[in-house]
């Protein structure tokens, strides 16, 4: 009978086919949204920007110490999990809710939560609609292959209110239909509603109703069966949150690595090598990622914070010490 420590050591020496393939090609392949402000959208130069995009870049930095060694693959809601399962991408950072059936029936695993959201509805500001119950008989734009289809149907059925779904493959298609008057409302996660509103010609013409009808925690997804790769994605995401908890920023990470005597900081930044060794990465893996993209708070504020066009308050995505839900698991 092997001791627990021996079994753990054996597990940590198992090869990772995903990591081996990434290193062999010299590039991470990351699945992202086809286009939604704040998470993933091309800027005026065609360069992808957003929270999910930067998380991909940070993961590339953790592996290669180079955030540019990543290729982005835009995927629709209906094709994202199929593409991951087929090996077309290495990891999916794409506004994807963690659910039991996705985790247990698709041959995939979600790593850990990096964004908390909830389903909502957006209507014209002059519609007179104050709450969802006022939308009896409304036509509602929805995105195919999302949890939002089921959430909407379940809620309207539960309150005995009729609605007519109009289903689209992509968010931009639904937004265009909403603007053109083909739908009375758009139902999806509140963060994406804020992104769509920011892209409208006159954002003030649109109101996001205050009610929330579901829990929509986003996590990165990987294929089952590659424990080392799962560990890398899980603990990389955790490290970006942990950096904010410790006050480590893109600007001060180098000084913190050089001068800090805090054992937690020294472990996170690779002064002591055990965290990187446990997942087969360079001891400076988390340091390299933080230097490339910053901590979670920095990511949030520059991609969808109140000074951006999306202007979405952090709300539940504040750290747990500030009344939010974000909580880094102990990295020791």
From TrEMBL:
PANTHER family: AMINO ACID ABC TRANSPORTER PERMEASE, AMINO-ACID ABC TRANSPORTER-BINDING PROTEIN YHDW-RELATED. Gene3D superfamilies: Periplasmic binding protein-like II. CDD domains: PBP2_BztA. Belongs to the bacterial solute-binding protein 3 family. It comes from the Bacteria. This is Amino acid ABC transporter substrate-binding protein. PROSITE patterns: SBP_BACTERIAL_3. InterPro entries: Bact_solute-bind_prot3, SBP_3_CS, Solute-binding_3/MltF_N. Keywords: Signal, Transport. The lineage of its organism: Bacteria, Pseudomonadati, Pseudomonadota, Alphaproteobacteria, Acetobacterales. Residues 27-256 form the Solute-binding protein family 3/N-terminal domain.
């Amino acid at each position: 009978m092997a001791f627990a420590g021996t079994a753990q050591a054996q597990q940590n020496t198992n090869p990772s086919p995903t990591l081996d393939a990434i290193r062999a090609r010299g590039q991470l392949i990351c699945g992202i949204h086809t286009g939604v402000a704040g998470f993933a959208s091309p800027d005026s130069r065609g360069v992808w920007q957003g929270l999910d995009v930067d998380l991909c870049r940070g993961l590339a930095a953790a592996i290669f110490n180079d955030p540019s060694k990543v290729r982005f693959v835009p995927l629709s809601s209906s094709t994202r999990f199929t593409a991951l399962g087929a090996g077309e991408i290495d990891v999916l950072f794409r506004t994807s809710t963690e659910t039991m059936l996705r985790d247990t029936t698709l041959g995939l695993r979600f790593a850990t939560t990096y964004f908390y959201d909830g389903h909502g509805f957006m209507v014209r500001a002059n519609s007179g609609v104050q709450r969802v119950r006022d939308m009896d008989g409304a036509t509602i734009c929805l995105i195919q292959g999302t949890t939002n289809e089921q959430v909407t149907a379940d809620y309207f059925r539960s309150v005995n209110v009729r609605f007519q779904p109009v289903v689209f493959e992509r968010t931009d298609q639904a937004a265009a239909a909403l603007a053109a008057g083909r739908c009375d409302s758009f139902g999806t996660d509140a963060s994406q509603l804020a992104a769509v509103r920011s892209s409208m010609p006159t954002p003030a013409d649109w109101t996001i109703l205050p009610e929330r009808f579901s829990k929509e925690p986003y996590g990165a997804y990987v294929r089952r069966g590659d424990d080392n790769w799962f560990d890398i994605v899980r603990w990389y995401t955790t490290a970006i949150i942990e950096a904010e908890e410790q006050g480590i920023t893109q600007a001060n990470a180098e000084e913190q690595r050089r001068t800090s005597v805090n054992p937690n900081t020294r472990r996170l930044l690779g002064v002591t090598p055990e965290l990187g060794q446990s997942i087969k990465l360079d001891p400076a893996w988390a340091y390299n990622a933080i230097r490339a993209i910053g901590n979670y708070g920095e990511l949030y504020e520059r991609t969808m914070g109140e000074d951006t066009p999306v202007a979405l308050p952090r709300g539940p995505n504040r750290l747990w010490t500030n009344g939010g839900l974000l909580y880094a698991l102990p990295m020791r």
